[in-house]
Amino acid sequence: MLQPDSAVADLTGSLRFWRRDARGITELIQLRALALYGVRSGAGAAPNRLLAAMAAALTPPGARTVIEDSPEAITEFLRPRPVRELPGVGARTAATLTEHGLHTVGDVADVPAVTLQRLLGARLGRTLHERAHARDTSVVDPTPAPASISAEHTFPRDELDPAQHRRALLALADDLGTRLRASNQIAQGLTCTIRYADQTATRRSRTLPEATHHTVLLARTVYALYESLGLQRARVRNIALRADALRPAVKATRQLTLDAADDKPLAIEAVADRARARFARGSRGRACRARRAHTACRSPGPRRFRVAPVRRERVTYHVRMQFTPEGPAVEGTWASPDTALDRYREWVGSHGSLSGVKISLAEESDDGPMHTIRTWTKEHGEETAAPDAAFP
C-alpha cells in the first residue's frame, strides 16, 4: 500500500516515447510536479519496484536516486544498507536479525533461506531472502485505488511532546471530518503515518466501527492508533492521516444509543460547519486547539461606524520567458495572479529543462515599480526574489 505522499509509475514504455533514459524521465516528472503544482519531490528509479522504493526513501526533496540495471550497481546500492531499511523489516524483526549478527542487507543475503525461515518463520524468512537478493515480482497496478483523502502536519522542529502529537492528530481529524462533510462522504477506515527524525516511518491502519464523517468519532479512532504505537520520547517530524474507502454519506448507518450526551458533540459540529462556511475556514476549532482570548466588555446600546471608501491600486502581473541573456523573449500580462501563476508554471513545465532559458514572474502596481517575485532557470531551479501574499 502506498503512503499518502507517495506515487509509483512504470517507466518501461516511456523510455522510447520520450527518447530519454530513466534519469531524464524522473527529472522531467519532478520538474513538472514543481512547475504545475508547486511540489518539491524526492524520487527513486530502479529496475524493480522494491529498489525504487528504497531509493526514494533515502532521497531528500528536490533530488533523485537512480540505480542502473546492472548486477554491480544493484549490489553496490543494496548490500551496505542497514537491515531495517529493507521493506517488511519492522523494529521487532530488525532486533531479531541484529541479535544473530545480521546488520546489513548483505548479511541477510549471505544467510541460507532455511536459516531465515527458522529465525523468522516460513513466510517472512522466504520473503526477506528474496528481497535481500533484489528479487521483486510485484508490478505497478494502474487500477485506481479506492477513493481517499489525506491531510498532514509537519512540525517546525522534531517534536518529543506527546501532547503536541495529540494536538496535531486532532487538527488532522478535524480537517478530514470537515472535508468529508462538505463533500457528503463517509470514511470506512483511517491510516496514520508517523515519520521520525531519522527518516523512518510507522504506518497503522484501522477500520472504523461504523463508516462516518464526524470529527469526534474520527478522533477517537486516531487516538487509539496513536496509543497502539507505544511511542516513548519519539522525535516525530511529520504526521499524515488518511481517510480510506470513501462512499456517499447517504449510505451511512449509525448504531442507536440511549445516551443523549453522544448527540451533543455532533450538534455542535454542525454549528461549527455553518460558522466556517459563513465566516472563514479555521474561524472555529476544537477546544484543545483554540487559543485563549480575553473577552472585551461591551457597552450597552448600538454603535454606529462610518466606513470611508478604500482606494485600491491596480496591480498587474507579468510572466517573461527569455531564451538567451541578450536574445528574444516572450512576455504576457494578466490582472489575475492565479492566471499569471498558472502560465508561469506552464512555461516552466514546458521549457524549464532547457539550458539558458530564464522564466520570471513579476508584479507591477500603479504607484510603484515592477519587482520580480519568482525566477526559474535550469541551473539554479526556482528562486523567490520577494514573497507576495497573492501567491502560495
Secondary-structure content class: alpha+beta
- Contiguous runs where pLDDT drops below 50 for at least 5 residues: 286-303, 387-392
Report the β-strand fraction as a percent range: 15-25%
The value of Rg in angstroms is: 26 Å
- Mean model confidence by pLDDT: 80
Distance between the termini: 30 Å
Major beta-sheet overview: 5 strands, antiparallel
The ordered string of helix (H) and strand (E) elements is HHEHEHHHHHEHEEHEEHEEHEEE
User: How many distinct beta strands?
Assistant: 12
Per DSSP, the total helix count is 12
Helix content: 25-40%
Shape: globular
Give the key terms.
single chain; 392 residues; alpha+beta; five-stranded antiparallel beta sheet; 12 strands; disordered C terminus
Describe this structure as you would to a colleague.
With 392 residues, this protein is of the alpha+beta class. 35% of the residues lie in helices and 22% in strands. It contains twelve helices and twelve strands. The protein has helices at 14-18, 22-37, 49-57, 71-78, 91-99, 105-110, 113-120, 122-132, 162-182, 215-229, 263-278, 337-351; strands at residues 43-45, 64-66, 149-159, 185-196, 201-212, 236-244, 247-248, 315-322, 329-334, 358-365, 371-377, 381-384. The strands form three sheets. Strands 3, 4, 5, 6 and 7 form a five-stranded antiparallel sheet that branches. It has a five-stranded antiparallel sheet with strand order 9-8-10-11-12, with helices on one face. It has a two-stranded parallel ribbon with strand order 1-2. Strand 8 (315-322) and strand 9 (329-334) form a beta hairpin. The protein is globular, with a radius of gyration of 26 Å. Mean pLDDT is 80; it is low at 286-303 and 387-392.
